[in-house]
Amino acid sequence: xxNHALENAANALKNARCAIAFTGAGISVESGVPPFRGPGGVxxxxxxxxxxxxxxxRNPEEVWPLLKEIFFDTLGKAKPNPAxxxxxxxxTRGKLAAVITQNIDGxxxxxxxxxxxxxxxxxxxxxCLDCFEYFDTSSVSLEKMPPSCPRCGGLLKPDFVFFSExxxxxxxxxxxxxxxxxxxxLIVGTxxxxxxxxxxxxxxxxxxxxxxxxxxxxxxYSYTTSDYYLEGKAGxxxxxxxxxxxx
Length: 247
Ligand code: APR
Description:
The two termini are 21 Å apart. The protein folds into two domains: 1-33 and 80-120 and 167-247, Rossmann fold (3-Layer(aba) Sandwich); 34-77 and 122-160, SIR2/SIRT2 'Small Domain', CATH 3.30.1600. 42% of the residues are buried. The chain has helices at 3-14, 53-58, 60-75, 82-92, 107-111, 169-181, 200-206, 220-224, 234-245, and strands at residues 19-23, 98-101, 116-118, 121-128, 134-136, 156-160, 184-188, 210-215, 228-231. It is 35% helix and 17% strand. Helix 1 (3-14) crosses helix 9, helix 4 runs parallel beside helix 9 and helix 6 (169-181) packs parallel to helix 7 (200-206). Adenosine-5-diphosphoribose is lined by residues 24-26, 29-30, 35-38, 41, 102, 120, 189-191, 193-194, 215-217, 219, 233-234.
């Protein structure tokens, strides 16, 4: 990757009228959170079919221990890394309108980002499938599997999107509306393989916007959508870019 691309990308962000970030699992890898695809990916070790809403409903005793192992035990210890901090700093300095994330780990908020659209929900909340009450995950004991609703004793489900479950429609509408108004989209750590979230950069592009991509490897965005492809780890590339934008 040439410094030329980095400088041009920084200028695009510096001069943006409305810039957004679109992030995926890759931004949290340096916080110790495994990606879903690629080397060490969650879906290389677990069958995604078990994280289908209907399979979960039928087999909570089987799926809940996997949820605890893959998500709750890992994410409970994860801390924001310099990439999350860099995006929060851009927002604080008025250079980023929002983060639209596919991640459920809450690390953007922990880093200080205030406007965060969580396309696939969040691990920080649970919902009872019997009384429909919502709970903070911190208020639910995970000692007993599956955990039971503190209110009615029913079956709790983490408030993130399972396969064959629809995404939160309000988040989808607000995020796509913001993307339509944006003139720069910074992609960090996602190959955009899952729709409709993966369409966010295309919406900005189709509206005439500039797409900057930070990824470890080339993705489906790299040749078709990205104007600047900055190859490298998010924890290194985001702070580099942010440093130039704010200099
Ligand atoms: N820095 C930057 N990018 C990285 C890093 C890193 N340190 N490590 C990995 N990546 C890149 C990978 O090259 C890949 O392009 O991050 C991307 C991770 O891709 P996925 O694991 O597919 O994650 P994501 O795109 O967020 O998945 C989308 O799929 O299973 C569903 O709901 C789940 O939200 C998830 C969605």
